[in-house]
Amino acid sequence: MKLTLRVWRQRDADAEGAMSTYEVDGISSDMSFLEMLDVLNEQLILAGEDPVAFDHDCREGICGACSLVINGDAHGPERTTTCQLHMRSFKDGDTIDIEPWRAAAFPVIRDLVVDRSAFDRIIQAGGYITAPTGSAPEAHATPVPKPDADFAFEHAECIGCGACVAACPNGAAMLFTSAKVNHLGVLPQGAPERETRVLDMVAQMDEEGFGGCTLAGECATACPKGIPLVSITSMNKEWLRATRKVAKR
Amino acid sequence: MTYTDYVTGEPVADTKAPAGPINERWDKRRFEAKLVNPANRRKHTVIVVGTGLAGGSAGATLAEQGYHVVQFCYQDSPRRAHSIAAQGGINAAKNYRNDGDSVHRLFYDTVKGGDFRARESNVHRLAQISVEIIDQCVAQGVPFAREYGGLLDTRSFGGVQVSRTFYARGQTGQQLLLGAYQALSRQIAAGNVEMHPRTEMLDLIVVDGRARGIVARDLITGKISTYFADAVVLASGGYGNVFYLSTNAMNSNATAIWRAHRRGAYFANPCFTQIHPTCIPRTGDHQSKLTLMSESLRNDGRIWVPRAKGDDRPPNRIPEDERDYYLERIYPSFGNLVPRDIASRAAKNVCDEGRGVGPGGQGVYLDFADAIRRMGRKAVEAKYGNLFDMYQRITDEDPYEVPMRIYPAVHYTMGGLWVDYDLQTTIPGLFAIGEANFSDHGANRLGASALMQGLADGYFVLPATINDYLARNPHQEPVTDQHPVVQEVLAETEDRLNLLLSVDGDRTPDSFHREVGELMWEFCGMARTDAGLRKALERIPQIREEFWRRIKVPGTGEEFNQSLEKANRVVDYLELAELMCLDALHRAESCGGHFREESQTPDGEAARRDDEFAYAAAWEFTGTGEAPTLHKEDLVFEYVHPTQRSYA
């Protein structure tokens, strides 16, 4: 198929950006979206132009590197990562808009590549269980009820891609933060740091310049791993609980 | 002198594993290893390159011990290292199933699975440590699959007859990596780890024979900088991307280990690559990478092809008695769960016979119809749901209705930098852990053992053995950019990148990568011959010459430039590919993933030649395109007596 691509080009963080238009031909419906961009880039290099910069790595939907807004939707029209989106979701002759994640806390580095280090700093603020190597008790010492283990797993599936932030009209990181708070908070191993974890992570999230949550629900719709919207309400409950508990101390 | 006229130098031997009963060696080594006083640890800087299971766990643990860690990854976050894509699980000899498992059995299975080309001491230690890894990960909150009673669930994997594989649905690597990443994050927040994401190592700095630092490029600004330390740890993963199409991440590369090799670290068994039997077949020339379908699927899926050649009926129209469940037929006791090398070769054989299915006949069926009948669709969904979804997304076919089509693809490299029992390379102060080293898997890795080895190396082995090196070298002279060696390494790096940018030819980095990859797949892939390897060895220098004449890299070095990153990685693939072919040529036996057509049993199985090749081949670099020097490490088997592997 033949497509018209309108792609966000921006030299670096300080430069002005703009949409540029390109044509690609000979695209097969079995190609992934990123393979289609590979075709464009090979074309651009041979023409002596700068190829379009975009983040990508595993191309299996698990590393969380790829991050494109396609026709206005984070990761495009299907509920998956950009790398797992295939060209069979488009038609011959389509015009496709390709933009980076748009959020105040994710500044553009170049073209479609953004800086998501704010997510790392939220995890650093408390998204862990303190268990230095060698200090662990025998794994079966603490059974974990299966429903709790499954709940933890469902939240632990977050790949940190940032689609939730890109989709949110407020640029909020509530779904990302709540996924980790809920994953660790439900486990007995995570109990000792349950209060400090949620308070510190939420404080860091605010400091990074993410917006507030108005429960628009766009985040959960865009999430390729299906982290549920109710995750945010669970975190709010955790935060309130922690605030009151810490106030009593 | 041509490249194939290599000379055999002095043998190389591990001097660190203590003698005595194998189950006491690790304890003994840990006791004999010198310690660094906790107060002195913060005075030592350790560089760790890579943040996968090995690098992430090592960085976190070294920092917990009090060392100052400076860590690097090319990704935008340490959480994205390719360990994240490992699906199936992690082995541990917990024997929770009471099914006859033990440390000794895991040791035995791994040595045998590796076709008797691994070092016994290392493998035994790996089996011992396996049990601690599970404890450690559970304590970190890794959400392993659990039974209704709240205890951990396990499943079985290829090449073994016990259920010792712990898993987190089809995302075990992700969960283990996030555990290590979170431990690392805690140390970053505490100021004990200085993390440099989007920074790629381009060379190693060796001063007075010791590894003292690295040259790295900031991928955002393009700035090339030096970083110095008392020891350098490479945890940069394997080199499967030499083949262009593999299950590796797009940016996984061999530069860190190859540059270390060029600086003096021996490279061991480069031809030992693992071709994984269950990957989604390629669909066309546009293909940029291949996707694995976890080996765990072989627990319940049945592999088959039509009995007749060229049978192009849809699978559901082929009656039962006209199907060939060839693994169950040839290997009745292991059936669909034979080791990876055997399953891959068998798939190739039936496709070569003209019985392959799907486009181009490059595929076999992995059929879940029986499993769905036996367990019900719901149970199959609970066990493999995310894998089935992934398959459907990529192929647009529903595996609940139509059997999956699978074909082997490059997945893992057992070869890597040669290391001793302490995981130290032949350059003092340079350590290699995880897939970057050659140590534990011999000529074939068993499923669910990569995660085990990465975490064993990073959490438990390296943090113990690096103490010994640092304690013996407490006061190393400080090195600065002004040191002539550093000046030289910096200049070489800058010259290389400038040259790449200045050729301004007419071919893209990707086109060269694809060309060398296809050559390797054809001649150094699932079946290798003397004639084919010689052909590849003739061709590779020609491609290299053409590369430097025709490469085109747009832009400059002082900016975010993904073409430049790619081109620089291809430079190293074009040298490494040559060494892989030479190693494959010199090893005129078949073993594990290395199948030489000249060396097979009458029924087509790999024929090892222990009298001549019971050694690890460690190669010393002597110059680009120059014949390397071979150093042999003799492998002695005191506990697991080498036999012809039998899975029948």
Topology:
The complex is a heterodimer of chains A (249) and B (648).
Chain A lengths: L2 E7 L8 E7 L8 H14 L21 E3 L2 E2 L20 E6 L7 E3 L2 E2 L2 H8 L21 H11 L6 H5 L6 H12 L8 H14 L10 H5 L7 H19 L1
Parallel strand pairs in A: 1-5
Antiparallel strand pairs in A: 1-2, 3-4, 3-5, 6-7
Helix pairs in contact in A: 2-6, 3-5, 5-6, 5-8, 6-8
Chain B lengths: L6 E2 L16 H8 L5 H4 L3 E5 L3 H13 L2 E5 L17 E2 L11 H11 L6 H20 L14 E2 L9 E2 L5 H18 L3 E4 L2 E9 L2 E9 L5 E5 L2 E4 L20 H8 L4 E2 L4 E7 L22 E5 L16 E2 L1 H5 L9 H13 L11 E4 L1 H7 L1 H19 L8 E10 L2 E2 L12 E3 L17 H23 L11 H19 L6 H15 L6 H21 L11 H25 L23 H4 L1 E6 L8 E6 L14
Parallel strand pairs in B: 1-21, 2-3, 2-11, 3-7, 11-19
Antiparallel strand pairs in B: 4-6, 5-6, 8-9, 9-10, 12-18, 12-20, 13-17, 14-15, 14-16, 16-17, 20-21
Structure at a glance:
The complex is a heterodimer of chains A (249) and B (648). With 249 residues, chain A is of the alpha+beta class.
In total, how many beta strands of chain B?
21
Spans of chain A of 5+ residues with little confidence (pLDDT < 50)? Answer: none
- β-strand percent of chain B reads 5-15%
Spans of at least 5 consecutive residues with low confidence of chain B: none
Rg of chain A, Å, rounded: 20 Å
Order of helices and strands of chain A: EEHEEEEEHHHHHHH
Distance between the termini of chain B: 46 Å
